[in-house]
Structure of NlpC/P60 family protein:
Amino acid sequence: MKKLVSYALAATFAMSAFVGVQELTIQKAHAVDPFGVSFSGVTASAGVNVRSGPGTNYPIIASKPGNVTVYFSGLEYGTITPDVWFNKPDPRWFYYIEGGQKKYIASAVVDGLPPKASIRPKDRAVAWAVDAQGRTDYNWYCQMFVENTYGTTGQYASAIAASNNLNTGGSLASAPIGSLVFFAPASDNGYYGHVGIYIGQNTMINAQAVVRADNIATSSYFSSRYTGWGYAPSSWPGHY
């Protein structure tokens, strides 16, 4: 993928009226954003645990053997779990309904995804960001990366330009899944600022030299530069 053309630093920074760095209020793990969608997936070969909620903090209520098809009724977000195939952190949990009860399996141990046409833009964006982990072609083009997760490009010249328009200044504790999380401009980011896509549990996926997941709360670098979050514009469709 071609990289965006570099932008004039002086012009970008002169136009910046960015939200100030804030004291970090972290987000506790909890189930969020349930969305009903029918699809199927195949369990990892070693077998999988079934839990009463979307996270490893919920009790194991059953198990399923490996390589069996499960028919799911929806997805939620919860404990971030590295997938068993590529070790990529994944916040998604899939549920099926049995005996009137939701039963959950981590996406990280399921080979199968909801059809992209049937889910929300932020679900498409998170799915694409999770899959993009490990890529090196973005090479710190963080704004282009988050725009690409939402199926668009060329919307803002830099992270600070996006922040000036989208940043609510909200605390990390209030950041929704799929929101854009912003960081202050500084000499080490060329005064362009930085941005990632939020996947819950104080964690974002962002483009550095490698696309990766970072826990904002435990990173002294990111926690000291966090300025707030913003919703992706409604016109951004999510990557198909």
